[in-house]
Amino acid sequence: MATTLEDLPIRDDLRGQSPYGAPQKHVRVQLNVNENTHPVPEDVAEDIVASIRQALTTVNRYPDREFTELRRSLAAYLNGELSTGEQLPSEQRLTPDQLWAANGSNEVLQQLLQAFGGPGRSVLGFPPTYSMHSILAAGTGTRWIPAQRDDEYRIAPETVVAAIREHQPDIVFLCGPNNPTGTPLDVDTIRAAYDATDGIVMVDEAYAEFMPEDAPSAITLLPGRPRLVVSRTMSKAFAFAGARVGYLAADPAVVDALRLVRLPYHLSALTQAAAIAALRHAPAMLAMVDDIKQQRDRMVAELAAMGYRTYETWSNFVLFGGVADPRAAFEALLEQDVIVRDLGIPNHLRVSAGTEEETTAFLDAMRRVAAVQP
Ligand code: PMP
Fold it and tell me: What atom of ligand 1 comes closest to residue 246's alpha carbon?
């Protein structure tokens, strides 16, 4: 008989847990994990390859443990210095010592939990939210405390304050815009959470670039708030999911705390070179964001016209309800070469916005599903 996980002397608190589990299926229209479905432009890819080639000439040495140049580039990106758009006002400008990066924002969040969570400590979150938040809590031995959202998946300032008063967590995880619901997160809610706790408040802004242009990011709240942490990723808007680069902005003291738990040289020289090169081309890498937002809004409008329940979304995906049998609808879409996400929310499915063509393929497939399964 094959050995099962249950036969192993695994940690008691990991027994019975499930791994992160988006199905990895290769179908024509993949709209299940909120990627940017637009490939990296060819000329940008060539420049990235040239940078990686250069980095390979010294790959016999360990990489810069402090990824100094990457942190400089990330600060410049967040300050708006790499694009023609708006720049952060001078009092909100970030310095490289406020930036930290790792292999995806998942690793950044794990390091944060290693430093500020762990056995005997707790993290408060508001499901439905990004499933890795509770999985990372489990992996680091941090107790996960789920709290209730308000209607339409929103979190009012009073709601976050009441949950913090009740549970006294060491860390508060907020996600804005929230995955899987797309719900905007109000800066008033972040301010209220910060004032209600002595712990860390972490805002996961993986989808920040898809917010309306005039909506303030949690980054604007950083001055004077040394326990506030804002995580971002190059996986979504930046079309860089396969390269694994996530980062956070916080007080330099928070960055010092992460140095205590990171593995030495955790960001490879090749990753650093690729990310720096990609950031040099920020406008080209982000050129598709407007198009993705348009396709997202089109999905919302057309799904609503088909009779499904939609929600306000500030991200690159749409949660929709009113699906009689999500499992059957998921399978029916798969048969038409379209994959979406069934997150186990009763009567709901989530779909990422694709290119215009992919979005059309999804909507056409959905109309056929709706005809047999209203
Ligand atoms: N945060 C949220 C809210 C996400 O949806 C995701 C990816 N699905 C991540 C973080 C992790 O992204 P990555 O590790 O690729 O940076």
Answer: 16
